[in-house]
Amino acid sequence: MSENNNPKRTELSSLGEFGLIDYLTKGIELKNPSSRYGVGDDAAVIDHVDFQTLVSVDLLVEGIHFDLGYTPLKHLGYKAAVVNFSDMAAMNARPTQIVVGVALSNRFSLEAIEEIYVGIRLACEKYKVDLVGGDTTSSRAGLFISVTVIGQAKASELCYRKGASENDLLCVSGDLGGAYMGLLLLEREKAVFKANPNMQPDLDGFDYVLERQLKPEARLDVVDALEKAGILPSSMIDISDGLASEIKHLCKASGLGCAIYEEKLPIDPMTASVAEDFKLVPTVVALNGGEDYELLFTVKVTDFEKVNKIPGISIIGHMTSTAGEAILLTRDNESFNIEAQGWDSLSNEEQKKN
Amino acid sequence: MSENNNPKRTELSSLGEFGLIDYLTKGIELKNPSSRYGVGDDAAVIDHVDFQTLVSVDLLVEGIHFDLGYTPLKHLGYKAAVVNFSDMAAMNARPTQIVVGVALSNRFSLEAIEEIYVGIRLACEKYKVDLVGGDTTSSRAGLFISVTVIGQAKASELCYRKGASENDLLCVSGDLGGAYMGLLLLEREKAVFKANPNMQPDLDGFDYVLERQLKPEARLDVVDALEKAGILPSSMIDISDGLASEIKHLCKASGLGCAIYEEKLPIDPMTASVAEDFKLVPTVVALNGGEDYELLFTVKVTDFEKVNKIPGISIIGHMTSTAGEAILLTRDNESFNIEAQGWDSLSNEEQKKN
């Protein structure tokens, strides 16, 4: 287990709750002009002046969202922060602050929770976000992380899911399915290791898809690029549960349908190659694999030239008037209804139970 | 167990994650002018215009912060929201929005989580706070609730822990120790019931202290009363971990000490009577019992007349220059150093383990 890698072990109870908070937040400097007061009082204070304030929360639960058998705690902390930053990108906003709640059992040491915070603080540094508060407590079993992100945007810049119009172009950043392939590789090596603990994991050469799973990034760079190109997307969402699921959300919120082209789906060669190893169709992986944290957005047809010039953005289809109907047009000119098979923690739990 | 009281049982997995969120947030109307967009997108949107924005998070963990053996789920939801509103009161701010994260195992039904949300929404209605977002997921075991509260205040009205000056008067709202006595009663009846399941719990006549434990309120009314009286406290904190612990926080943050008078500590007669039943000294209960969610604050000596006129506020002592030294002056004119023995989830967990 990752939390036992560190030879030093300090019991959390030796610091107590306030000692722990002091220890974990030592040396934090507020960098955002909007962060007026951080850790150390009953609440943090933020001043967004002329901006709107955005807020979103995500929970990460051990055994449901992550497996400590192959997830380093530092990566877990990094990912917990980044997936929340991605929610701000999805609104065409910038993350500015986070507050973090951690509940963990006494099987974790101080060094373990510190690793989580190292990851969170690394993400904060990279994305210029201030960690302004939190709560740390015991749990009877397992590790729970709750990250609430605060962000800002001008009211006129915000992108909701509901703003798409008929014929708007559907665009996606980066490539899809990689994070899911990384997960399958990690699960496979875990199973091999369980069967024979002397076997060393064979993950060489799979860096890209492993990183997509273990260390995802939020596409704030795309928010910047769109602004620079003078494009305000008509609707936007981030791809956390898979393209198929997110496309359904955009269609539902906008009261429209869409058509996407199989040949336009951006798939990295390594994703395709790992998919084939697992006897999976790369297109299906791109449609249903979750956790890529790319942005899915719509732009007016008149923005075609502008959006086409932005590196790393793929135009994969367009919005149609048939509400709720999402169509995939294959390379063979067949058309299929897209069904969302995205990851659902409640249904998945049920599957495990049965 | 409370979650089995309801004869109807709908499995959470039958709705799926998005269905569940839709179900739980159905009919929510945004009431705060600052709530621009609520549930249903990647983030909620808030506009505090000329106000500062405050944010705070609290986790409530089954088996650590609550026992479903005697905590009705509706009360749990109410309390989860209210303890966060109390953090806003502690800053002299008003809560405006919350986002809620719930992780729960499949031993809970839809009706169970609905009860939690009924309690949360009841608290929101009473305190005029909007529920603007959340995350719902599975856990392998147990129930975890994460509430993040957003609030607002004018920058000039904010009260930090650090603002007290020497000779400032120490004031406390309401009375102390009741919530702890309620907890002891509930724990005693649980033990009796465990020993003999045919025994009916004998909680009649203890309504006040039981309500202090199960259905605490946030003292936003005190924030209003102070404003009306023209008093800006020099420092403020809410009493969640016990007076002794919170007084230490105020002293430390302000670089001062304090002296408080035993005879001035506000203790309800029922709290005193239950304390005596348990062979506890009421003063010790008032000092160390947690979860009263009253406000502890300091005001300038020149505000004495004004604060003295506000009903339900007790002046219990004053700030001194001896940094870090908190003194209790007893009825017998003896003086004791106050040691914080407040509740600490990490240390308490350790005690349970040993």
Main sheet characteristics of chain A: 7 strands, mixed
Please report the distance between the alpha carbons of the first and last residues of chain A: 27 Å
User: Which fold name corresponds to the CATH topology of the largest domain in chain A?
Assistant: Phosphoribosyl-aminoimidazole Synthetase, Chain A, domain 2
**Cα shape of chain A:** globular
Mean pLDDT of chain A: 89
The SSE order of chain A reads: HEEEHEHEEEHHHEHEHHEHEEEH
SS elements, strand count of chain A = 13
Largest interface: A-B, 78 and 78 residues
Word description of this protein:
Two copies of one chain form a homodimer. By secondary structure, chain A is an alpha+beta fold. Chain A folds into two domains: 2-154, 2-Layer Sandwich (60s Ribosomal Protein L30, Chain: A); 161-346, Phosphoribosyl-aminoimidazole Synthetase, Chain A, domain 2. Chain A is 34% helix and 23% strand. Chain A contains eleven helices and 13 strands. The first copy, chain A, has a seven-stranded mixed β-sheet with strand order 8-10-7-11-9-12-13, sandwiched between helices. A four-stranded mixed β-sheet of chain A has the order 3-6-4-5. A two-stranded antiparallel sheet of chain A has the order 1-2. The longest helix of chain A has 18 residues, at 110-127.
